[in-house]
TrEMBL record:
It comes from Companilactobacillus nodensis DSM 19682 = JCM 14932 = NBRC 107160. It is found in: Cell membrane. One of its GO terms (cellular component) is plasma membrane. InterPro entries: ThrE-like_N, ThrE_Dicarb/AminoAcid_Exp. The chain crosses the membrane at residues 127-146, 153-173, 179-200, 212-235. The keyword DNA-binding does not apply. This is Threonine/serine exporter-like N-terminal domain-containing protein. Keywords: Cell membrane, Membrane, Transmembrane, Transmembrane helix. Its main location: membrane. It is a multi-pass membrane protein. Residues 1-235 form the Threonine/serine exporter-like N-terminal domain. Pfam families: ThrE (PF06738). Belongs to the ThrE exporter (TC 2.A.79) family.
Length: 236
């Protein structure tokens, strides 16, 4: 149950969660049936004991999904015993996070991602530098606002606004000629690409409900960023 909860919190696909839980049950010598919705896990053990746990629609944590998948595979291959598996899952469950990286490393990665679109536009070197700076700042604003406030999508709106504002300032200072390219590059770390991909995969696997909810959430994220950018462009 806790494994399913963590996978939902990490943004895993419904069919992946069901398959993982059923494989864990089989590895422990039990007949397990699992059904997953967008925010809940239902588990039946040996046709008798039915259990239910509720989660919330979170973001995407690929590291958590990878860590849990690795643990479940090691359990299936008898490389770890059930006690060690339980202790590892319990540790992740109590901390509510898995292997994480320091903020400066995340921000640096966000800056590198922001530079990538400039390769497509074949822009001069200084555009790469400005994209790195604006993208890093935009990601930092989103990261810390998400920790300070529980209001959904507000951090993304403000981040989009800040990114557009900084790009406009660079243009006003005659440091760049096409500030729209800076905006396009800097919002890349915030775009919900993985969420949209997962929603499409859910649809292909015929999990229509999960697909629709995740796709709607991804569209709201993208819309929040877009409205933030549009507000800055209108005002300035």
């Amino acid at each position: 149950m806790k494994t399913g909860y963590l996978l939902i919190s990490g943004g895993a696909e419904s069919y992946r969660i069901e398959d993982t839980i059923e494989r864990i049950g089989k590895s422990l010598g039990h007949d397990v049936n699992c059904y997953v919705t967008v925010t809940a896990v239902f588990v039946e053990v040996d046709g008798q004991n039915s259990k239910f746990i509720k989660s919330t629609l979170g973001g995407t944590n690929l590291q958590m999904i990878d860590d849990i998948n690795t643990l479940s595979r090691r359990l299936a291959e008898k490389k770890i015993n059930p006690k060690d598996f339980t202790e590892e899952i319990e540790k992740i469950y109590q901390d509510k996070h898995t292997t994480d990286f320091p903020f400066y490393l995340k921000a640096f990665g966000a800056g590198l991602v922001s530079m990538a679109p400039m390769l497509l536009f074949t822009m001069p070197l200084y555009y790469f530098i400005y994209c790195f700076i604006v993208g890093t700042i935009g990601y930092g604003v989103s990261y810390y606002l998400a920790k300070l406030s529980n209001l959904p999508y507000v951090d993304l709106f403000i981040s989009g606004f800040v990114i557009a504002l900084l790009s406009i300032i660079l243009s006003k200072l005659n440091l760049v000629g096409q500030y729209h390219n800076i905006i396009i590059g800097a919002i890349m770390p915030l775009v919900p690409g993985v969420a949209i991909t997962n929603a499409i995969r859910e649809l292909v696997m015929r999990h229509a409900l999960s697909s629709a909810v995740k796709l709607l959430d991804a569209l709201l994220v993208a819309s929040s960023i877009g409205f933030g950018i549009a507000t800055a462009l209108i005002l300035f």
